Amino acid sequence: MRTFRLQLRFLLPLVVVLVGAAYLALPIVDQLTLRWFARDLGLRGSLVASSLSESISDALQDPKGRKLQQLFNRVVEDERLVAIGWCSPLGELLVRTPTFPRDMSCADAERLAAGADANLLVRGGRVHVTAHEVTAESGPVGRLILMHDLSFIERRSLDTRRYLIAMIAGLGVIIALVTMIVAQLSWRGWMKGTRALLRGEGLVRPLGGGGSPELEPLAMELRSRLRDLEDEYRRGQSNGDAHWDAQRLQALLRTQLRGDQVIVVSNREPYLHEHGEGDTVIVRRPASGLVTAVEPVMRACSGTWIAHGSGGADREVVDRHDRVPLPPGRSDYRLRRVWLTPKEEQGYYYGFANEGMWPLCHVAHVRPVFRESDWEAYRAVNQRFADAVVAEARSDDPVVLVQDYHFALLPAMIRRRLPRATILTFWHIPWPNPESFGICPWREEILQGLLGSTILGFHTRFHGKNFIESVDRYLEARIEHEHSVVSYRGEETFVEAYPISIAWPTPEEEAAKPSPAECRRELGERLGIPSDHRIAVGVDRFDYTKGILERLHAVERLLEKYPQWQGRFTFVQVAAPTRAVLEEYRAFRARIEAVAARINERFGAPGKEVVRLLPQHHEPDDVDRLYRAADVCLVTSLHDGMNLVCKEFVASRDDERGVLVLSRFAGAARELPEALIVNPYHVEEVADAIHRALVMPVAEQRERMANLRSSVREDNVYRWAGRMLTDAARWRLRERVSERVQRHGEQGRTGTTG
Ligand code: F6P
Fold first, then answer.
1. 404 lines ligand 1 (CB under 6 A)
2. Which terms in the GO cellular component ontology are assigned (predicted)?
3. Which of 141, 157, 173 is the last residue of a domain?
């Protein structure tokens, strides 16, 4: 209706203009017709004169002129001739019909006939005057003045006017109809085009045809400019000097995301409730890089965290909706626990996630195992988490942060149920090259699931590139490499690198820490390490990707190659138990224990072991004291998305002492070049690096550590979350504009307002 009214606003003036033009044109048309008729009447007059010439010559024989009079009277009975006058060669009016104007002389008639406007009024009717010479054999005998009736011309002219007006009106209606149809079609076309453009499909023809080929270059150019601007904006944001902290993240949520609901989904929960002594319930923080990074963000966001409730006493502390406020005693956010049966946990977590995806993505020389039953369980559990997200969503467009390889199918499942949600998926582990990824029997489904995300984040550009190449290899998707955007089945996913990090300690937290010397003394006392020993530490889960075995070989080689460290060096390895249900992990742990025992046998003595293996869970404060007590921290992952242990070590050393030895295969190596970067597979190189760290002058330690600290302080976890959420906010804005345009278009078509 609204479009129709809009079109009426355009059409009415058009009709008025057309009718006006018709009225202006009519006098001109009248004049033209008159002129044509005058010419015709002139010819007709000549014809009448010549056909009468013989009869006139005969009638002239009558000297009284009666015959001529009778002849003329007869002739004017012709309805087209009004009057006739007969003039002598001397211009004297000799005979005239009664209708001939009394006061008109021959000279007057001749003048009139010769003039441009040979018309005059006779008895209220218009006549046209023509004069013709009549000749006999003897020569000219006189002149015939004929007065032709013009009323029939006026009648015809009236008819012509009517036809003309009817024709113009008809034409107007046709033009109006055509205009309305064309306007409707082009409005729809433009609306469709604009919506497609804003959706990011643009007017560019999607795979399989369609679209407007002639507009392709324009649309491409337009979209490319928009993306350039967005990229520029994003670069400006990420390179910005502004410091990121919890307050800034909160401000971002308040302003750019207008307090929208944030839902985090991860397999691992941020706190586990376990049974303690007697009837007590204790709270434990799991050894997880994911939890280390996401928990402080969640405190700032005050949202809902959905995770698998895996603690022994978890069910005892939740409310009837399976929710528990966290962190303990503060209630900054709430945890919604999802319960899994042992069978589900076996298939989804141990099976598909940790025997399939984990080795597949880490390429750490452990074969992935893919079982159909695990895949079924993985799919079913992803669906259960999607249901939980829908149940927890307070609106149809929450911001959902999906974490890690446990949930590759979840983004598309959420997208199906909450199409307006902004889904940020972060993949915490590496993404392999397309060949390696290709061995997964469900590679297409995994990629399709992840492409349900609005934004898909990796730690490094390299992993993002591997993902895009995998999509390119196994799916029919359109990829804009320049802008890192994948379009699949009408939806876009922005693939970007967001290096994860840790929350930098506040001055109050730093002030509350025991000094490094105290930590050192305490550790020495606890483990019986002599005070003159140099200490290296490693802090990991008992996982084959962490390079713990290679590290032990390097320690052994150090003691062989640099015997001065024998009796003066201790290596403390914290190895949190993990996934012990799996044979691969149990065998790995046994191997580590065997190698540690061998080294201790070679270079130590009972109570003076070189390698101190601590295979228990350690709370964050305990780990922090260990970092502060150490001279060297060894991070030798064979392949790691990022690795946060190295960043935690750096953050703990406010005394700017200690040396970090870091694997080049950890994502963190790209951000922390002041560490001693090593190839963990090269035992000799790692042994040399440990030696170099042990002998490094204090000034060099300070310089390196100061630089490392400033990097981690700035690129902290709030920047990680802030960059992702800023991109999400930008995306949501774009979607909202797009929806508004779409709504406007639909209202335009249906005629509704609002
Ligand atoms: O490295 C990826 C990651 O999800 C880490 O965040 C976490 O440390 C680990 O894998 C998962 O461990 P778990 O299986 O014990 O949750």
1. yes
2. cytosol
3. 157
Domain residue limits at 460: 257-342+380-497
Separation in Å, CA 208 to CA 60, 489, 491: 96, 11, 16
Same domain flag for 533 and 663: yes
Tell whether 247 is covered by a domain.
no
Same domain, 333 and 430: yes
pLDDT of res. 217: 57
Give the mean pLDDT of the chain: 88
Which residue is closest in CA terms to ligand 1's atom 11?
A: 288
Residue 232 resides in a domain? yes
Compute, in angstroms, the gap from residue 363 CA to the centroid of ligand 1.
16
The CATH code of the domain that includes 599 is: 3.40.50.2000
- The answer to whether residue 526 is domain-embedded is yes
Summarised one tens digit per residue, pLDDT across range 55-79 is 888 888 887 888 888 888 888 887 6
H-assigned helices in 60-129: 66-75, 106-114
Q: Are residues 614 and 531 in the same domain?
A: yes
Please report, for residues 72, 81, 122, the alpha-carbon distance to residue 78 in angstroms, rounded to integers and kept in the order given: 10, 6, 16
Q: Is the model's pLDDT at 523 over the cut of 70?
A: yes
Can you give the pLDDT at residue 205? 39
| DSSP helix/strand/coil, 335 | strand
Residue 207: pLDDT band (50, 70, 90) is very low
Confidence of residue 102 (pLDDT cuts 50, 70, 90): confident
Inside any domain, residue 567: yes
Q: Average the pLDDT over 446-456 and give the result.
A: 98
**Amino acid present at 248:** R
Q: Is the CB of 268 under 6 A from ligand 1?
A: yes
For ligand 1, atom 16, name the residue with the nearest CA: 268
Say yes or no: 743 and 653 in one domain.
no
Q: How confident is the model at residue 411 (pLDDT cuts 50, 70, 90)?
A: very high
457 lines ligand 1 (CB under 6 A): no
Report the pLDDT averaged over residues 636-641: 97
**Of 485, 418, 438, 455, the residue nearest 227 (C-alpha):** 485
Instruction: Calculate the alpha carbon distances from 152 to 328, 547, 742 in Å.
Output: 107, 113, 62
The tally of domains found in the chain comes to 4
